[in-house]
Amino acid sequence: MSLVLAVNAGSSSLKVSLFRRTADNPANPALLLSSSTSSIFAPPAKFKFTCIALQHRSLNEEVNSISDHASAFAYFLYCLKEEARVDPIDIKHVAHRVVHGGDYMRPVVISEQSFHHIDRLSNLAPLHNGSALSVIKSAIKDLPHAKSIAFFDSAFHKDLPSHVATYAINQQVAEERGLKKYGFHGLSYAFILRAVAKHLDKAPDTLNIIALHIGSGASMCAIRNGQSIDTSMGLTPLSGLPGATRAGDIDASLIFITPAEDVLNFKSGWKALTDPNTLAFRIMLDRILHFTGAYHLSLHGDVDALVFAGGVGERSAELRRAVGEAVGCLGFAGIDETKNSQLVEASTLGSERSQFADVPAYWPPADYEAASRTSRRKTVVYPPDPDSPHPGKLEYGGHGTWYILLV
Fold it and tell me: Strand pairing of 305-309 and 2-9?
């Protein structure tokens, strides 16, 4: 038996899923279980362990012994063996999500060289690369027989046009130091592309999409003919949309009047707003519309889908409604408010989702095909529909969220 772990180390969380690969269908591994650990640095950590295809009990508990990502991964391995009765020797591969890969444009097997390459990039992704390296180190120590492989969020944007990726600074310095737009959330956008291609029954390399990944980290991406042509994050995940603690785009002169790296990465975003419920919503909506309009022009108005992903995109019917109303001037029809509201309710009832692993991908209602033929920009927002002839099913390779189409 060949087992694969998919690991996503967040800034204060760890999500792990276990898959079984078979020789007759290696491209579609079966999800066996998933786990999530949150509040790692605000003990007690919250640990969930959900058996899906294994007949063992699930866990939902607080664990005082978890104090960092390494101890969170160790506790997962303990539960894997003691609760799920899985022999770690059967784990052949560990797939790690790594946010910043620099000039690594494809997945790489972790070696001493690749480990140090990722380590050198940690200052460019301070909320993520360090935690990923901590788990990688633990996996190599605790699962020495398994091959650890890094998958990079930045790789999806490897073909950004030079005029998009280039900063207007001294080009010799920029080239020597690798100072350019890299972009992130690429694993999420790659999954969105595949999911939308299935929904629209079109080849991925024919699709034009404006994608929004809105969570504690937030970004947008313009995809033309299946390739990223622009994205809101840049050299680091700090630029573009504001997030839970990131400032997003700012006047660059702020770096001269603030202790920049700490303030802009860890003490900004929604955390810094005194009236977050109202002001944060208005700021996020403003920035989303800014990038949506720009990307609509970049795609010459030929947009197949506007897609929401991420924790906020999944849960905020208000944000989807506001964006849907605003893009009406671009030719999109209004959101079906009944389905928009139902999605919020359904999302609280869904199966456990794990980032960089299997995620629920739900097919549209039965009349979707007819609707898309008669109005290519009809707005469709849909929850899981048990009566649909296209029932929801798990799709491999996602980023851990629900995907809502405005098509």
Answer: unpaired
